[in-house]
Predict the structure.
Amino acid sequence: MTQALIIAAAKTVDARGSLKHCLDLEATLHQQGIRLTELIIDPLSTPWHSALEQHHYRSGCGPIEALADARQMIISGSTDAVVISGKDMLRSGYERQQRLDLMAIYGDDYPLTTAYNQLAEQFIHRHGADAQLFQQLAHHLFENYKCSYRNVVSDQLLAEQLPDERWYNHITPLFRGVDCANPLIDFSGRLLLCSAAIAQQLVPPEECLEVAGVGLGFLPADGQQHVEDIVSYTHLETAYKAACEQADTDFAQRFRNGDALLEVYTCYPVVPIAFLLTSGLVDLLEQVPAFLEQHLITITGGMNLAKGPWNNPALNSLIEMHQQLTASPDHQVGAVHGNGGLGYKQGVAILKKCL
């Protein structure tokens, strides 16, 4: 069967980094007359409830959806190569009030902080837990993100970018500012995929990752009326199992064994906790702290520290996964998780080295 391979991944973050390598390869594909399709992750400036254009994707699960489509397009032969692109200048491209207005996707009467807190309340109730345990888990999650972030930035940058003390205060009854995504970032990223035959002409095998499996799980609707359905996370379990089945791998076992890298979606604490449970990495909420002491569940520092460019965090994670996995002698597999809206869309991608 034809494989879909990621052959290049590039990003800029707050004017650091370069897209040149990816753009140069795209230019080569055009010069050779190879069919190249672009899939676009919408920015915040595209209204949340507007009609979705062809080859456009929206929500935090959007990049995983785009990856699933890119994989299928290449395997089916409907195109030779695909570039997934996303750009959002959240720091410099919007006035503060404009940004806040665009992010109020459930209306002024139901802000995201209220939505997150309600989701957490329902999640706690479903698992027979209490606020104290949930707050402990949120604390352990953020400490885990800090450990990952130290691996990708200098000590000086870490000191500069850690949130100041006010963000450690509670902004809702169940979590602090540091427990939620920080969106203030200028981001641009590109992920280039093609068939193995084309990849052999362009890059060495060690620069390639196979998109081994992409699983998606969707509920019919999102928002306040659907919180109880969302916190079941059966659709996340569906997405995870489908990705593992396609990739023919037991990702949880490989991750425990130290053979795999993971980037869980960390927009607010319920989501990474739900991933740990539904993937079988832990069986009970009470096991989460001990697990987090032994395993890093992000490679970036999460959306809390690496920041979350609206619809693009999973694209950032896929790019970072390509860069870190191809450079690591110790890891053969990586998984990236995406969460759309309050959680009505879930996606999991599993990438494998080609060597």
Notes: Residues 69 and 109 are 35 Å apart (CA to CA). The chain has one domain: 4-92+181-353. The mean pLDDT is 95. The longest strand covers residues 4-13.
